[in-house]
Design brief:
136 residues, alpha+beta, M1 Pyruvate Kinase, Domain 3, six-stranded mixed beta sheet, 3 helices
Length: 136
């Protein structure tokens, strides 16, 4: 995954150019979010400062939001509406891509999988997720 200044979110489909675009109907991982705070904690815990958050293969890096609290909720970022579907669980691959111990460290804080309710463009800036109506 490469870092980008903006991404196009396509309602019910995924992120334009992403490997999971149109993966399957109603896929709960149409977009994934990851916390900058968790990323920095991971770097500190493992003593790794030369890896970008992009190696963790999440679509959007957020700041100031507890992503686990958004599971079962609708929330909006920059006018795009999402529905939090579940945790983006870490896997063994993260130990290879980031550093041994990454998978264990990220259990319970691997990010958020979400569905895209209405599409639009997300641009890199300070855009913390704002919880909306609870749908669960």
């Amino acid at each position: 995954m490469t870092e980008q200044s903006e991404i196009r979110c396509l309602a019910g489909r995924g992120v334009e150019g992403d490997r999971f675009l149109d993966f399957k109907p109603d896929y709960k991982g149409q977009i994934t979010f990851f916390s900058e705070e968790v990323y920095l904690s991971l770097c500190e815990a493992l003593g790794v400062w030369d890896k970008s958050p992009a190696v963790l293969r999440r679509n959007v890096l957020t700041s100031g939001a507890d992503l686990n609290e958004l599971i079962g909720c609708e929330f909006e970022i920059q006018g795009v509406l999402f529905s939090g579907a579940g945790e983006a669980s870490p896997c063994y691959w993260m130990d290879q891509a980031f550093h041994p111990g990454a998978e264990t460290f990220l259990k319970g804080r691997g990010g958020l999988r979400a569905r895209i309710v209405n599409g639009g463009v997300l641009r890199a800036e300070s855009a913390a997720a704002t919880p909306g109506a609870i749908s669960g």
